[in-house]
């Protein structure tokens, strides 16, 4: 169950990063509110997952999901560029996540 909490926490990190961008410096109410709720839920689920999953593994996977997820959201929804170097960087993050998961007990 801890891995599910961790995955959802990572997805919520993507949500709050995206809605923070949409809040325009917290000047728009709805995206700002969603940002804070998603942050609280993400941190809460991360802390629950850390009861079972080691700190280094949990935090690395949480930030990795957030990094790759926001990278994809940036490309898909915000029209950010996709070039070979950015793609390789994202693949390196994903490979690091897989190795971290495989190395955890």
UniProtKB/TrEMBL annotation:
Q: How does it sit in the membrane?
A: Multi-pass membrane protein
Q: Which UniProt keywords apply?
A: Cell membrane, Membrane, Transmembrane, Transmembrane helix, Transport
GO biological process entries: xenobiotic detoxification by transmembrane export across the plasma membrane
The UniProt entry, under InterPro entries, shows:
EmrE-like, Small_drug/metabolite_transptr, Small_multidrug_res
* The keyword NAD is assigned to this record: no
Q: Name the Pfam families for this protein.
A: Multi_Drug_Res (PF00893)
Q: Where in the cell is it found?
A: Cell membrane
Q: Which residues cross the membrane?
A: 33-50, 57-78, 84-102
Q: Which GO terms describe its cellular component?
A: plasma membrane
Name the protein family: Belongs to the drug/metabolite transporter (DMT) superfamily. Small multidrug resistance (SMR) (TC 2.A.7.1) family. Gdx/SugE subfamily.
Name of the protein in its database record: Guanidinium exporter
Q: Which organism is it from?
A: Terasakiispira papahanaumokuakeensis
């Amino acid at each position: 169950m801890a891995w599910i909490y961790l995955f959802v926490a990572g997805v919520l990190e993507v949500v709050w990063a995206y809605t923070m961008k949409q809040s325009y410096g917290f000047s728009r109410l709805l995206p700002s509110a969603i940002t804070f709720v998603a942050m609280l839920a993400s941190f809460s689920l991360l802390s629950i997952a850390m009861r079972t999953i080691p700190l280094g593994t949990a935090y690395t996977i949480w930030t990795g999901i957030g990094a790759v997820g926001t990278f994809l959201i940036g490309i898909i929804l915000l029209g950010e560029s996709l070039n070979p170097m950015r793609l390789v960087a994202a693949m390196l993050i994903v490979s690091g996540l897989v190795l971290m998961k495989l190395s955890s007990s």
